[in-house]
Amino acid sequence: METLRLSCPLCGQDEEYSHARMLKRVQDLGMLRRAGNPEPELLEELFNSSLSRMECGECGATGLVTTEIVESDWGADRRCDICGKLIPDERLEVLPDSRRCVQCEQ
What we know:
Layout lengths: L1 E6 L6 E4 L1 H10 L11 H10 L15 E7 L17 H6 L7 H4 L1
Antiparallel strand pairs: 1-2, 1-3
Helix pairs in contact: 1-2
């Protein structure tokens, strides 16, 4: 699975977006109200077209930019599909298929 790495041009904050996180962000912007699981190509197109409207979680500036596409390796440094934070190794040892951190899972 590929993830997109976005960057804020103002403060330089980087965030990775998995398919699930892209879907949530696009839905939060009021897009895809009916489609529960759109085709990846459609989601990517909508996500990229809405980057100028997205706010940085760190400084609040509008207009994120794609810096790179990252191949996701489900090993060390696995990130939550919802918030993008690292999932602790302890959680992955107990639940190796976990795709969300404890806070987002609750």
